[in-house]
Amino acid sequence: MCPRAERSGRARALAVPAAQGVDRVLITRARLRRRIRELAAQLSEDYAGGEVVCVGALNGVICFLADLMRELSVPAPVELVHVDRFLEGGSHTVDMPNQFREGLRGRDVLIVEDIVDTGVTLRALVDKVRAEAPATLKICALLDKPAHRQAEVHLDYVGFSIPPVFVVGYGLDYEGFYRNLPFVGVVDSAVWPPALLERPKSGSNLD
Ligand code: IMP
């Protein structure tokens, strides 16, 4: 797509009511689709002849996981994990209360993540999966935000590396809003962290 057409596509994307409060499109729907096809082609090649159990953390991963798995040409059973995050004494703790429905022992497991920021959530998920003794464990993240990393994690497949901005859309939310946007957008960096953001209001200047 030529830059001009892409620009007007971005402006149109921001005009939808569900995007009120989003300042700009960072990754268009078309770029997401293209990159996910590339990732799926690579994964299908790497797991050819076998299967890959995709483990996803709810809720942010829903769009990415649904699109990625439909592009895979190998069998791909799915396990979903609920994640509760708390801020305790200034540090970030993670609880994952549910058990995997099927055992992961001896299986090839791929953790599918929406976004890796500090890495604390992914580290906890890696520990939970490792405790099941899979044969192999790899990680595929749609978005990598390395600037704030606190926990050591190795990402085997990355969709896009992005700057330290707060993004929404394509499954990612701010207080439950914006998950249904078909693109990844940026919420005003001037008011980041997100706790300072207001909820979207009707009648914003993005109408
Ligand atoms: P981490 O534990 O700091 O790596 O954060 C991972 C989780 O925080 C993700 O699975 C998201 O749910 C959430 N998160 C981190 N950055 C963003 C963002 O920019 N937008 C929306 N959610 C985010």
Structure described in brief:
The protein is of the alpha/beta class. The protein is 25% helix and 27% strand.
Describe this structure in words.
The chain has 207 residues and is an alpha/beta fold. Helix content is 25%, strand content 27%. It is built from four helices and ten strands, in the order αβαβαββββαββββ. It has helices spanning 3-14, 29-46, 62-71, 120-130, and strands spanning 22-27, 53-58, 78-82, 84-88, 91-95, 108-116, 136-144, 157-161, 167-168, 184-187. The strands form three sheets. Strands 3-2-6-7-8 form a five-stranded parallel β-sheet, sandwiched between helices. A three-stranded antiparallel β-sheet has the order 1-10-9. Helix 2 crosses helix 3. The protein is globular, with a radius of gyration of 18 Å. It starts with a helix and ends in a 20-residue tail after the last strand. The structure holds inosinic acid.
